[in-house]
Design goal:
The protein is mainly beta and 129 residues long. The chain has a single domain (2-99), classed as Tumour Suppressor Smad4 (Sandwich), CATH 2.60.200. Helix content is 5%, strand content 47%. It has one helix spanning 115-121; strands at residues 2-10, 17-21, 25-28, 35-36, 47-52, 55-60, 68-69, 72-73, 76-78, 84-87, 90-96, 101-105, 108-112. A 6-stranded antiparallel beta sheet has the order 2-1-11-10-7-8, with no helix packed on it. Strands 4-3-5-6-9 form a 5-stranded mixed beta sheet, with no helix packed on it. A hairpin with a 2-residue loop joins strand 7 (68-69) and strand 8 (72-73). Mean pLDDT is 81; it is low at 100-113.
């Protein structure tokens, strides 16, 4: 069962999507990586996607240079919808499997979400009309 996906929005693999199963896996150029990229500036195993306490997380594998998550170097990061991961010349966006589309526009990513998902992302629950 896939919990989410990574969409490549910039780099040699632009347009590719990778489903992220609950077991997680490696991200890099290496054979057998869950997210196998062709970008020569990416390490064979640049990082890992791991399920921790029910949340998919980015875990750095001591790659140098470190991945940037939303512009900040990160060793461990609980992934949220819309998070951007930059490794080498590749930029990926983390999205839930259902109900969200991603489009590349200039130098930013636009997420299209339904109103219920938007409220959930904002942490708003139990609204009554």
């Amino acid at each position: 069962m896939s919990l989410a996906r990574l969409v490549v929005v910039e780099g040699p693999d632009s347009g590719r999507e990778f489903e992220l199963p609950m077991r997680g896996g490696a991200v890099g150029r290496g054979e057998g990586s869950l997210v196998q990229l062709t970008d020569p500036t990416v390490s064979r195993q640049h990082g890992m996607i791991e399920l921790r306490d029910g949340v998919l997380c980015w875990v750095d594998d001591s790659a140098k240079p470190r991945a940037l998550i939303n512009g900040t170097p990160s060793v461990l990061h609980a992934l949220m919808p819309g998070d951007e991961i930059v490794i080498g010349a590749t930029r990926l966006v983390y999205l839930p499997v259902d109900g969200v589309a991603v489009t590349k526009a200039a130098s930013h990513v636009t997420m299209e979400v339904g109103s219920r998902q938007l409220l959930a992302l904002a942490g708003v629950h139990g609204l009554t009309g």
